[in-house]
Structure formats: structure tokens, C-alpha cells
Amino acid sequence: MTRVLAEAERLARCFGAGDRKILAVDAASFVIRPGDSIALTGPSGSGKSTLLNLLAGLDEPTSGHLTWPGIGSRDALRPLAVGMIHQFAALIPSLTVAENVALPLRLGHVEDQEQAVLAALEAVDLLEFADRLPDELSSGQAQRAGIARVLAHRPRLLLADEPTGQLDQATGQAVISSMLDHAGRNGTAVVIATHDPAVAGRLRTSWRMDHGRLEAHEEAIP
Predict the structure, then answer these.
(1) At 179, which CATH number?
(2) Which residues contact 131 (CB under 8 A, 6 or more apart)?
């Protein structure tokens, strides 16, 4: 079995044309393997979100190559193999918290859904909110529900775009612990885009983006 989950060669994504052309990701080359934990840092507008969307298969490159050797084709990424945590949870208003968390499992025809949902809600301290609707949650609780929705289906590649942005420091650190614990148990690769040094410092590898360029990789933790 291949030890590479995702691989990019001179990956690029442009928006617009002519004088309005924006090179959001510029010739990025990298490899992501099972168990990697990567902090994606850089200023706002540097291309972090675009890179995550490309990795999640939510966007397509303008040029270059992006493949997922350890997963399969782009069609194999969702709903289970790759999990994407956005800055805002985007929960379905008519579904309870538990039903929102279970949705990818139902789409992927996973057995033992109830156990997986309860475990994910417990990991983000939301068990008592399982039967509530999204409009009964605070913004921080909704964000944690969105994180639980991804943890429940145990993705092989976990991507997160500022996952602690709606959370206080203590809750944010607890959520990051849940994500890293999940990754450690399942051999999941984690890539987290963050402005928070306290979050970035908990990941083994640091990638920095600036004006679309993916700069030198640095080991954050021995």
C-alpha cells in the first residue's frame, strides 16, 4: 500500500484574468503521508484556504498536478476519505446536532452510525446538545458540531481552515487535542490553516504561504 495520501507537483490556482488575475496558489509541490501533522500559516489572502480547497477536491487546479495515491481518484475523496472543517460550520438548520454529525456517515452507508456520532460529540463536549437544532447553539457550539461531523467519519486526510477561530483559547486547545488524538489513533494526516501560534506549535511540521507561494517546510516539534 502506498505511503502517500496526497502529492502535488507545481500546483497552481488562478482567479480572474488579465490585470485582475490573482495567483492564489503558485507552483506548490509537496507530499502528505499518513500521520503527518502540518500547520499551514501565513497572512490573510496568502492562499491557505485555496490550497485546502484543492486538497479537499472542492476546487480544481489551473495548472500542475494534484493526486491522492493512497485514496484514489477525486471521486473517492468524499464523503468519507477526506474531511474538511471550514471556518463556519454550515450546519443544516432542519437537522439536529446528532443528525448533522451523522450526515456524512449516512451518505457513505457506514454501519454503527450512532456509536460514531456519540463518540464524536463526546470528543468535542457536545453530548448534551445532541438533540438540539443549530439555531439553539452558540457560534462556538456550532463550530464544535461541525468539527464533530468530520471526526465521526474518521477521514484519512483531515483538513481544517481556522477551526478555532470561533472558540475561546481553552476550548480551542481542547478541540485541537481531540483532532490530534483522533489522528494519532487512526493514522490520519492533518493539515490545519491557522493564525494562532499556540495551535501551530502543536503540529510537527510548519508550512508557510506568502502571496500564493508555499515556502520552506520547518519541523515545529522534534
Answers:
(1) 3.40.50.300
(2) 96, 97, 98
